[in-house]
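Entry 14. Structure prediction run on the chain below.
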Amino acid sequence: MDLSEFALHREEIAETLSRGERKIAALPGRQSRVVKRGTTLIRARTEHDYVYRLQSGWAGRIRDLPNGRSQYILIFLPGDLFGVKSMFVSSHPDAIQVMADALIEQIHCEELRRAFEDDHDVATRCIWQVIEEERRLHNWIVSLGQGTSEQRLAFFLNETHGRLVLSRTIDPHARAFELPMTQQQMGEYLGISTVHVNRTLQWLHQTGVATKRGRKVYIRDEKALAALAYPLADDHERAAARLWVRS
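Output returned:
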């Protein structure tokens, strides 16, 4: 197993994380199903009984505001374990929606909680997932608070490309990947208007950094994209960029 997916893990828990990953994947009661784009997998302000593994496709955690606006909080990509809080909370404050047709593996939260309580390896793997989501949220808070629209978009594209590489969804040398988000959804994640998203995409295209055509992003200058994203990245992201940015 490639332990590089466990960002910043301590060496002494590497084997524990690896064993926990395998044990969760082998738990009885797991079910796989296809979920269509636009499906609300977890409804906000409701109790939910399942934890999920995204095998293919995209999903996002989203909060709908009383004024009709929305904010995407986290994007889930293939390989991600999500909805872990189903084991602990009586109500999910935010929704999780499927953003591209997805193959999802689900397990009842009671089944996973029994394994969590009985097996140190499973517990460590679940706790690490919460820590990883926190790390990504910290990066995105910095991006929303301090980044320009160009930097935010570059960080999003660079990080997404890297995560898709690590999950083996795309080849390490691939310069293109599927981005199934509409410009409205991108704006709801980036914290800018749809018009601003369009202008920023045009700027990236005109400067030769990246181009989005339909549902696909083409990275035209990897070094320039990484340089734009660099100020917003944490130490892990800056070091991990070596995995997908080549000289």
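Residues 243-247 have pLDDT under 50 and may be disordered.
Filed with the rest of this week's runs.
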